[in-house]
Design goal:
The chain contains 14 helices and 19 strands. With 436 residues, the protein is α/β, with parallel strands linked by helices. The protein has three domains: 192 residues, Rossmann fold, CATH 3.40.50; 131 residues, 3-Layer(aba) Sandwich (Rossmann fold), CATH 3.40.50; 74 residues, 2-Layer Sandwich (Alpha-Beta Plaits). Strands 3-4-2-5-6-1-7 form a seven-stranded parallel sheet. The longest helix is centred in the first third of the chain and has 14 residues.
Length: 436
């Protein structure tokens, strides 16, 4: 039976979006009408949706092979793109492939090829070498945050991918940075450029927080108390610094998570899940979190360590004031510390003495069933409410994965939920449920 294509309006309604912003509108039109398009717009302004909508519109329902390939510099960004694409509910099959994931699992999912493949350069290059999927119908490629992929050493893999795809007609590049040099391996003639870099953070406030002491830990805790119970990210330059800051915040009773390159992939993904569902509202992170991760609306970010380059200062700041919402970036520095030339901020935030934010009343539960078990978010919500006895207000964010799910639950109900639902069946699948 021929699949009925969903309209762009239907997909936006499913996401709860009334209309696209100006950048997205221009990008969609450009991709519909031009072969080569570059989207320049700050982190958090909606570039993923801007390229997904026209790509999905161009897909042919009667083609049972891969038609579009989206390359992302990190596993986190690949998973974020996959989630946005799934949330659109287009009806087209799609999968994300990345390092750290079983090749066997990839191959199982390629038995019936998806219309869209999302992946990291190394894993996609590997599949092209293996000839894991047919490329005859593959006509569109997106290099998302392409400068970041080059920066982290994927130039050879990206060049190899392009060499493998002679039939590509549409090339889309995205970046949050202006003036980036185009890679030499890319044939990118007469591109249509959508440039919104200068306009993206119009509601971002920049302020300084001055520490009287060279050791800024006490001032950081005071700042967190002053800023109150809202989501925030504290940026450090090194994972060892995160450990030191984390130990101090533990002593102060401040709930928080970690996100940095040395963590296991599973732990990084779970840190973001718990941050999104409110299990904790503070994330300690390196510049790995400066772009390409899916996080909730951030009220503030704090530069605990000064960024080493202007670009990273911009990308860190882009985690807040997203999609033209308001947000503030604070530079926390010792009173005798010289700020780099690219940080020119006059306004100083005077910290008031306030209590630290209360501990979160949410907990994250792992559920051992997912999409492959034909389980939906609605199934899980019904299971927790009807069988587990939860009120709707006690059930938080549900994130559904291919083989599992993560559910936010009111802390007061965790023990009873696990007791009632662990080892019970949903859609003929016996589920294991535990706290993470």
């Amino acid at each position: 039976m021929r699949m009925k294509k969903r309209s762009q309006a239907d997909m936006l309604t499913k996401l709860g979006i009334e209309q696209l912003n100006e950048m997205q509108t221009q990008a969609v039109q450009a991709i519909q009408n031009h072969s080569n398009v570059m989207i320049l717009s700050p982190t958090g302004t909606g570039k993923t949706l801007a390229f997904l909508l026209p790509i999905i519109d161009k897909l042919k329902p009667d083609h049972a092979y891969v038609q579009a390939l989206i390359i992302a510099p990190s596993r986190e960004l690949a998973l974020q793109i996959e989630q946005v694409a799934r949330n659109l509910g287009s009806g087209y099959k799609l999968h994300a492939f990345y390092g750290g994931r079983s090749i066997t699992k990839d191959m199982d999912e390629l038995v019936q090829p998806p219309s869209i493949i999302i992946g990291t350069p190394g894993r996609i290059a590997d599949h092209l070498r293996r000839q894991s999927f047919d490329i005859d119908d593959l006509t569109t490629i997106v290099l998302d945050e392409f400068d970041k992929s080059l920066e982290v050493g994927f130039e050879d893999e990206m060049s190899e991918i392009i060499d493998h795809l002679p039939k590509v007609k549409n090339v889309i590049l995205t970046s949050a940075t202006k003036g980036v040099e185009l890679p030499s391996f890319l044939d990118f003639d007469s591109p249509q450029i959508i440039d919104f870099v200068k306009d993206g953070l119009d509601k971002l406030s920049l302020k300084r927080i001055v520490s009287p002491d060279k050791d800024k830990l006490g001032t950081l805790a005071k700042a967190i108390a002053h800023l109150g119970d809202q989501p925030g990210i504290v940026f450090c330059n090194f994972k060892d610094s995160i450990s030191r800051v984390s130990d101090y915040l533990d002593e102060q009773g401040v709930s928080h998570g970690h996100f940095y390159g040395g963590m296991e992939q599973r732990d990084r993904e779970r840190a973001l899940i718990k941050f999104r569902n409110g299990t904790y509202k503070l994330l300690l992170a390196t510049d790995l979190a400066a772009r390409g991760i899916d996080v909730p609306e951030i009220g503030y970010i704090i530069h605990y360590h000064l960024p080493l380059r202007a670009e990273e200062f911009t990308h860190r700041n882009g985690r807040t004031a997203r999609m033209h919402r308001e947000g503030t970036a604070y530079v926390l520095h010792w009173k005798n510390e010289k700020l780099p030339d690219f940080i020119d901020i006059e306004e100083v935030e005077e910290l008031e003495d306030k209590p630290l934010p209360p501990k979160s009343q949410w907990v994250t539960l792992f559920v051992s069933g997912g999409r492959k078990d034909k389980i939906s978010k609605g199934d899980i919500a019904g299971f927790f409410i009807k069988e587990g006895g939860l009120e709707k207000s006690e059930l938080g964010l549900i994130e559904l994965k291919q083989d599992c799910a993560f559910v936010g639950v009111a802390k007061s109900k965790v023990s009873s939920i696990i007791k009632k639902l662990d080892n019970q069946k949903l859609k003929k699948r016996k589920l294991r449920i535990h706290k993470i």
